[in-house]
Amino acid sequence: MTDGPNPLEQVLYEVKRVIVGQDELLERMAVALLSGGHLLVEGVPGLAKTLAVKSLAGAIGGEFQRIQFTPDLVPADLVGTRVYHQHSGEFATTLGPVFANLLLADEINRAPAKVQSALLEVMQERQVTIGRETFRVPEPFLVMATQNPIENEGTYPLPEAQVDRFMMKVLVGYPTSTEEHAVVERSLRPAEVVQAILRPEELVAMQEQAAQVYVDPAIVDYAVRLVAATRSPGIVGLGDLDRYLTYGASPRASIALVIGARSLAHLRGRAWVLPQDLTELALDVLRHRVVLSYEALADDLDADAIVGRILAAVPAPTVVLQDR
């Protein structure tokens, strides 16, 4: 661990010169960057989701690409394709916009399944296969996808296999009156220009530092118990939730909880993980991984309510770090 403030805090401060509010979203974006994970953001239009990730890309000095998902997109529009050049009589590969440090998949649920699935390989393996050639995406690499929760017409729900590959799902709400007042005031003057605080290679080094943060075995056990309770809530005395859950979270959730908590601890200047680091991220990590039954929808229960009850029922460990 390096002495002094975390450089990512300076990055977030630079982004805050442009973005009003959205503190939780910005912190989760930083956690995803340190963890090498991807982010799914849900919120109504006009809440600066696009501006947030574009500003973050500018502050880390990385390449930013935005793809506006529409029903007529094809996979080649994302990953690239092979183009025939008549003058040479040969095919050449043209890489698509996924080859960037920060990729914004805007309104991802507006594209059909074949386009959504085109992102699967690059999100999981950080590579794209075109023809018989495989191309690595640059590092660091973060996919931030947005979806609009208030429209259903012309949308395609994300398959569970793809949703599970997003490390976190963050819900973005309306600003407070004070924040909205500041937003309107800023709109009356020229927009701030975001300065590059980091270089992409420095962020890669920070990811390696975050990987050195100590994780006590009790923290790992806590994550596993939380995720297990989403599959069998009866083991923590919540048998009444069984009828509301069709499927629980996968082992990817346990991994994301621990890795995310480790990155959050590093972001806050600690060399060890505390149980509250994991608890803070639990809703974001689990809300999109539990599949609710029709009974839950009929009783007006959402994933946050169910995960909240599980969090309250699973006791957090007491971690003693005498030598840390």
Estimated share of beta-strand residues: 15-25%
Please count the helical segments: 13
β-strand number:
11
**Architecture per CATH nomenclature, i.e. the level-2 architecture of the largest domain:** 3-Layer(aba) Sandwich
Outline the biggest β-sheet: 5 strands, parallel
Rounded to an integer, what's the Rg over CA atoms? 21 Å
Integer average pLDDT: 84
Number of domains: 2
Structural class: alpha/beta
Overall shape: globular
CATH topology of the largest domain: Rossmann fold
Question: H/E order of the elements?
Answer: HHEHEHEEEHEEEHEHHHEHHEHH
- CATH superfamily (homologous) name of the largest domain: P-loop containing nucleotide triphosphate hydrolases
Strand order of the largest sheet: 2-5-8-1-9
Q: Which consecutive residue ranges, at least 5 long each, have pLDDT under 50?
A: none
How far is the first residue's CA from the last residue's CA? 12 Å
Just give the CATH class of the largest domain.
Alpha Beta
Kindly state the percentage of residues in helix: 40-55%
Topology:
Blueprint: H1 7-16, H2 23-35, E1 39-42, H3 49-59, E2 64-68, H4 76-79, E3 80-85, E4 90-95, E5 102-106, H5 113-125, E6 127-130, E7 133-136, E8 142-147, H6 160-163, E9 168-171, H7 177-187, H8 200-210, H9 217-231, E10 245-247, H10 251-267, H11 275-286, E11 291-292, H12 294-298, H13 303-313
Parallel strand pairs: 1-8, 1-9, 2-5, 5-8
Antiparallel strand pairs: 3-4, 6-7, 10-11
Helix pairs in contact: 1-3, 2-10, 9-10, 10-11, 11-13
